[in-house]
């Protein structure tokens, strides 16, 4: 049992991940975190670009990267404005998720565009490297911001890494510059590190959401069990006490049902037969009074209570007749009869509801 629990806590299968992502609450939380972390990444890159812009005004750039069409100050200025814009858009998306707005049609395209554009820009920072500085410093900062801030799954992480490495190799090949072995080792270590950390974060998010969902489901199950009679499947007296005040100041139809000579049936045919009768009554009540406005309670040993907000009294009476007609047949060769009494009226106070119950009990054998 302990091994199963540990597996649930620390490992979420691909199938379970798919189920979690289809959960509206998990999907909304993922959207919120993605937009929030992407906003932070965008603002971080924008700030770095401002520093790059200021530095480019007085920089002495590496000759082998010098190209006539590329001016670092223009590049950093445009990149700063671009990522500031991304940051503002992501902020509006975070607020939209907090308002529980439906997902936009182009949210995935926005996120992918942000990642791919900034990965391209990360490689373009190589063109702005100044003499005496680390060629890959800004590239590393940009790559880390894109790879580690947003929550991305394994497939997306591999695609982004492939795009990054591909652009990097093309950039070096275009300038006729070969990467040294140390550079290759460092870049492999960088991207391996980014993939590993991003997947640990993704896995941690999935584990956390899985625990939350399991706790929520267990809480709902316990709540349901605490309000449900285990034998008949109807609501129990605890549920009636909790629901009692909710029936005040309303037009109600109230009915009490009693199984005739139930004690005799129990004594003659045994408790197992008696349980079968109670289960049958509960199942029939739940199948007929199934609407949200209806509630069926096990009121006593062989008594059941129905409270309905049915506005049409005739419909309520027809349902009671339907319940009674179901017991005009024999159960295991024994005829079982039901007695039903009901009351209809407006209930203002708890005293009014108790009076309705007394009236229904008084007429229990007159339907």
Which class do the helix and strand fractions yield? alpha+beta
Question: How do the SSEs run, as a string of H and E?
Answer: HHHHHHHHHEHHEEHEEEH
Tally of domains: 2
In helices, the fraction of residues equals 55-70%
What is the gyration radius calculated from CA atoms?
35 Å
Instruction: Report strand %.
Output: 5-15%
What's the total helix number? Answer: 13
Mean pLDDT: 85
Lateral arrangement of strands in the main beta sheet: 2-3-1-6
Give the CA-CA distance, first to last residue. 53 Å
Description:
- The protein is 64% helix and 10% strand.
- The chain is of the alpha+beta class.
- The protein folds into two domains: 2-221, no CATH class; 237-362, Reverse transcriptase/Diguanylate cyclase domain (Alpha-Beta Plaits), CATH 3.30.70.270.
- Strand 4 (330-331) and strand 5 (334-335) form a beta hairpin.
- Helix 3 (24-56) runs antiparallel to helix 6, helix 5 packs antiparallel against helix 6 (137-148) and helix 6 (137-148) packs parallel to helix 8.
- It is elongated.
- The two termini are 53 Å apart.
Question: What is the topological layout?
Answer:
Elements: H1 2-10, H2 14-21, H3 24-56, H4 72-98, H5 107-124, H6 137-148, H7 154-174, H8 181-227, H9 237-243, E1 250-259, H10 262-269, H11 271-288, E2 294-298, E3 303-308, H12 313-325, E4 330-331, E5 334-335, E6 338-347, H13 350-362
Antiparallel strand pairs: 1-3, 1-6, 2-3, 4-5
């Amino acid at each position: 049992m302990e091994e199963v629990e540990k597996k649930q806590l620390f490992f979420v299968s691909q199938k379970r991940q798919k189920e979690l992502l289809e959960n509206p609450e998990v999907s909304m939380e993922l959207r919120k975190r993605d937009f929030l972390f992407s906003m932070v990444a965008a603002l971080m890159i924008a700030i770095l670009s401002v520093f790059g812009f200021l530095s480019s005004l007085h920089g002495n750039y590496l000759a082998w990267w010098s190209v006539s069409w590329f001016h670092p100050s223009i590049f950093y200025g445009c990149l700063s404005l671009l990522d500031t814009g991304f940051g503002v858009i992501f902020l509006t998306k975070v607020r939209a998720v907090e308002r529980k707005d439906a997902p936009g049609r182009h949210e995935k395209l926005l996120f992918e565009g942000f990642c791919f554009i900034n990965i391209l820009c990360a490689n373009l920072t190589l063109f702005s490297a100044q003499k005496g500085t680390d060629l890959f410093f800004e590239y590393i900062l940009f790559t880390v911001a894109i790879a580690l801030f947003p929550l991305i799954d394994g497939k997306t992480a591999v695609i982004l890494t492939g795009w990054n490495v591909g652009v990097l190799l093309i950039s070096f090949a275009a300038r006729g510059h070969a990467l040294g072995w140390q550079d290759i080792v460092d870049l492999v270590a960088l991207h391996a590190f980014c993939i590993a950390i991003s997947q640990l974060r993704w896995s941690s998010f999935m584990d956390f959401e899985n625990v939350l969902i399991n706790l929520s489901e267990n809480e709902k199950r316990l709540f349901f069990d605490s309000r449900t009679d285990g034998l008949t499947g109807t609501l129990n007296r605890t549920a009636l006490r909790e629901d009692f005040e909710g029936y005040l100041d309303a037009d109600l139809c109230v009915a009490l049902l009693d199984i005739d000579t139930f004690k005799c049936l129990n004594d003659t045919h045994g408790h197992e037969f008696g349980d079968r009768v109670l289960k049958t009554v509960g199942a029939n009540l739940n199948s007929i009074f199934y609407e949200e406005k209806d509630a069926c309670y096990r009121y006593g040993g062989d008594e059941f209570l129905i409270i309905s907000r049915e506005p049409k009294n005739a419909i309520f009476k027809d349902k009671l007749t339907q319940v009674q007609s179901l017991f005009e047949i024999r159960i295991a060769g024994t005829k079982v009869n039901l007695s039903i009494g009901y009351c209809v009226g407006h209930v203002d106070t708890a005293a009014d509801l108790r009076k309705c119950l007394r009236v229904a009990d008084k007429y229990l054998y007159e339907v």
